């Protein structure tokens, strides 16, 4: 791998070093800027979204560009659905625990290089996203501008999903399949530490 690609991987790893472990810890949810920053404020969001992007590249039986778009798009849609459900007053117990489980599961799936059909990949990504969306929606009554906040976190979520997909494509192009496995181990280890 040339130095430029090594620097890209290093920059991505640096971006994964968050200020706090979980992003749902009483932060400000006032508007657009806070929505943009929210997914970057906790490793739970960063790791799951990057993991879903990685899974979309190399962990499905269908290696088409359709998969690279469909799996992250399903994540976004399910996250919005979870947000809207929570905003309607639906109370789901153990949302934070569901988020931790999504981190661990995403890591294990990557580490084991589990291959999915397109439908299964969409279902797994959607399941992860639902918990993240429910957590977002539960916070929104505190927001001054809820729609602006939602727009902000959707933009950053999209960027993180694309970053994961691009990292997977980069690893694929250099025949570095171990990158996803190593990332999976790191993601799962973080999830286990967060659970304790």
TrEMBL record:
Signal peptide: 1-23
Transmembrane feature ranges: 39-57, 69-92, 98-131, 143-162, 174-195
Pfam family, one: HupE_UreJ
Claim: RNA-binding is one of the keywords in the record: no
Family matches, as InterPro entries: HupE_UreJ
Superkingdom of the source species: Bacteria
Keyword terms, alphabetized: Membrane, Signal, Transmembrane, Transmembrane helix
UniProt entry tagged with the keyword Transmembrane: yes
Name used for this protein in its record: Urease accessory protein
Species for this entry: Amphritea atlantica
